[in-house]
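Supplementary Methods S3. Complex input for the cobalamin-bound model.
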Amino acid sequence: MAVEIHQRLSEWLGPLGFQCAPFKYQDDTLAFVILSTPQMFEKAFKPYIADKLLATVRDPIDECVVHYFTLLKKNFSDHRIEAIHDFEMFPNRKPKILAQTAAHVAAAAYYYQMKDVQQNPWGEKVRKMYGVCIHPRYGGWFAIRGVLIFPDVQDQALEQKLPVDCVSTNEKKIQLLEKFNFHWQDWTYRDIIDVEERYSEEQKQYFATPPAERFKLLGLKGDALR
Ligand code: B12
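Predicted complex, serialized as structure tokens:
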């Protein structure tokens, strides 16, 4: 069952620049983590935004993913699907999903955390370094957009795979966490390994623009609404 749904989902999401990978949610409940690859901007976001005259939304990318998840659910109406997005929070501001843990468990991208580094080189002065996922093909040039849960599908046979430990040396892992925590704006953590594809110049410019000005960049009048 998981194999068949995985294939159908991939066929639907792939042409839009998304990737999916299965994992078990609770007990044997089938779920998928959904990643956006560098192609999502061209293949899903730009066509989506081209239809919009006014942005009524907080974040156009988030709204775009909501749009495609809604379409996907209609297309898979033979199943009940619960979607949880990366940006959804509980009232206490804790995230509804641990997107990076999901990506790791589904073997879509390795989640590098402080505990992956031998002999904490930062000592007492650094209490918590945020962890970061690295994709074997796209390095840091991707995002985790959410999970899709299939509550009516139980699959005992689904086996957990290990993600590729592509940042293989301790030294590189230290570098990665330092770049992600202290220099994330310069994008270099994304290139910690050789990658197949990066964000286009246009996409980089979009993400480098402060959110309030992105509407203007897209030719939208969203800021007039807020
Ligand atoms: C809140 C948040 C922030 C906050 C706080 C960061 C943080 N990590 O807490 C702030 C605003 C600072 C932030 C900043 C950024 N963020 Co942010 N953020 C999030 C968000 C919404 C939730 C993260 C969170 O609170 N996690 C809760 C903590 C407690 O989880 P945790 O540390 O992983 O701990 C758990 C694991 O350790 C697990 N666990 C325990 N043992 C083990 C063992 C194994 C093997 C595994 C797998 C797990 C595991 O249990 C713990 C919980 O009990 C996520 C999206 C999401 N829904 O997950 C994005 C996310 C982490 N952010 C992301 C990014 C890219 C950024 C920024 C670069 C900005 C940007 N958007 O471009 C910056 C960079 C960080 C920095 N230097 O400041 C990406 C990371 C992508 C990646 N490749 O990993 C995410 C996943 C969003 C996305 N859509 O892709 N972020």
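The chain has one domain: 2-220. The two ends are 45 Å apart (CA to CA).
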